[in-house]
Specification:
Non-ribosomal Peptide Synthetase Peptidyl Carrier Protein, Chain A, elongated, 3 helices, single chain, 85 residues
């Protein structure tokens, strides 16, 4: 995921740490955040359009936790759908 930050937002890798606030510490704006979410959607093959939890993201750690939670849900959904066959 770090590569997405460094490539899309041109944030140096050494500035990335979980406690960094996206807007305050990294100087990103709301358009940067939209670009980031689009890039992450493409990278992970998921849709975030209807997900209200995005509004709660403040730090890079929040981004990581958000995508870990989505990935866990995806795996859980895949396991339950394949288990019924």
């Amino acid at each position: 995921m770090n590569s997405t930050f460094t490539e899309m937002l041109e944030v140096p890798a050494e500035e990335l740490s979980p406690e960094k606030e996206i807007f305050k510490d990294l100087g990103l704006d709301s358009l940067d955040m939209v670009d980031l979410m689009i890039g992450l959607q493409r990278k992970f093959g998921i849709s975030l359009r209807q997900n209200e939890e995005i509004r709660k993201i403040v730090t890079l750690g929040d981004v990581y936790a958000f995508f870990e939670k989505l990935e866990a849900k995806r795996r859980e959904s895949a396991a339950s759908s394949s288990g019924g066959e």
